[in-house]
Amino acid sequence: MKYEIKTQLSVEIENAPGKIAELSDILALHDVSLSAISMQEGPTCGRFRFTACDPVAAKRSLEKSGFTVETDEVLAIRTKDSKGRLAILTKALSQAGINIDYMYASVDEEGAGSRMILKVSNIHLAAHVIDEIKIAA
Question: Domain 7-72's class?
Fold first, then answer.
């Protein structure tokens, strides 16, 4: 497994048509590319979480447009998709006493590469645990 510690940005947006498009337009106008996206729904507001090629520019552009932006460090893990890899990872983190606050992931197709974003209770210990896991990338 290969990983990076990345900055994730999080923005609360109104749960209404066009709000994600508005946020996306702002980022596009400032040449910010997104590398991972998660959207959580709520009755009136949702939480748009993402990692970007330039998190500083992303935060600055959204704040200039009136959005409140929170940042967190997250683990961006790349691994080959295969049965049991998630179990190996989550078990190792659990045994180290690390809580997974949330995660989101995608797989292009079965057996291809996957990318997971994890928000954990102790990112540096989690990075050490991942270094110790003996499975191929």
Answer: alpha beta
Residue ranges of domains in the chain? 7-72, 74-132
Q: Are strands 45-52 and 2-14 parallel, antiparallel or unpaired?
A: antiparallel
pTM of the prediction? 0.86
Q: What's the DSSP call for residue 32?
A: P
Close Cβ partners of 83 (under 8 Å, ≥ 6 residues apart): none
55 phi and psi angles, rounded to 5 deg: -65, -30
- The torsion angles phi and psi of 101, rounded to 5 degrees, stand at -70, -45
Q: Alpha-carbon dihedral of residues 9, 11, 16, 17, nearest 10 degrees?
A: -30
Mean pLDDT for 96-110 is 87
Measured torsion, CA atoms of residues 47, 72, 52, 100, in degrees rounded to the nearest 10: -80
pLDDT at residue number 111: 63
Taking each helix axis as running N to C, give the angle between helix 123-132 and helix 85-95, from 0 to 180 degrees, rounded to the nearest 10: 130
